[in-house]
Amino acid sequence: MKKRFQVLIYIFMYGSIVAGAILGLYLVERVEGPGFVDYHLVIPMLVGIIGGAGVPFCISLWNKKRNKKVPEVDERVISLLRKYFLIVLYIVLIGSGFALVTLYSLGVHSIETGMLIAVLSGLYSLIGLGFLIIKRL
Amino acid sequence: MPVINHIKEIRQRKGITQVKMAEDLQITRQTVNAIEKNKYNPSLELALKLIAYFNVPIEEMFYLDHRKEK
C-alpha cells in the first residue's frame, strides 16, 4: 500500500512537471503566434525531466537495498529538520526585508520579475541542498 | 543538567552492532551514534524502547551528571 502511494506521488509529480512544460510551450506559441516554438524542444525537455527524476529515484532504491530495514527518517532527523526550517524561515524573512530596505536606500525602486525568479530559484536550490545535508547528519 | 547514558557499553556487552540496533528500533544509524556519544537525548518513547530492548533498569542506562551542574 505504501509503495503504491509512493509510485502514485512520483507519477503525479513528474506528470505535472511534463504537463506544465508542454502547457508553457503551447502558451508561448499562442501569444507569439504559430511557428514561434520549436516543438522538437519537447524531446530534450522530457529527457531532462526523466533523467532528473530517475537519478534521485535510483539513489533512493539503492539506499533502500543497501540498508534494507533501517529507516531514512526518525525522531532526531525530524527534530533537526524542524530547527533547520525555523532558522531558514527567519533568515529568509529578515534577509529579504533587509535586502529590500538596502536596495530601496540605494535608489532601486522597482525589481524585474525575472530577477526575482532567478533569486528565488537560487534560494530554493540552497534550501533544498541544506535539507539534504541535514537529512544525512 | 546533562544526561549521560551507557548504551554503548551495554550494546557491546550484548554483542549487538549499531546497524542491528538501528534496524530493531527503527531509527537511523546516525541517531544510534549520536545517542551513544551523548550528543542527542532520545525522546521518552525511544528511551523506554531502549530499556525494553536491552532489558536493563533505567538507572543502569541513563543518569544525570551532577558534576556538570556545579
From TrEMBL, chain A:
Residue spans crossing the bilayer: 7-27, 39-63, 84-107, 113-134
Organism listed in the record = Jeotgalibacillus marinus
- What name does the UniProt record give this protein? Permease
Source organism's superkingdom? Bacteria
Q: Which UniProt keywords apply?
A: Membrane, Transmembrane, Transmembrane helix
From TrEMBL, chain B:
* InterPro entries (UniProt xref): Cro/C1-type_HTH (IPR001387), Lambda_DNA-bd_dom_sf (IPR010982)
The HTH cro/C1-type domain extends over 7-61
Checking CDD domains in the record gives: HTH_XRE (cd00093)
The keyword Cell membrane appears for this protein? no
So which domain of life are we looking at? Bacteria
> Which keywords has UniProt assigned to this entry?
DNA-binding
Q: What is this protein called?
A: Helix-turn-helix transcriptional regulator
- Give the species: Jeotgalibacillus marinus
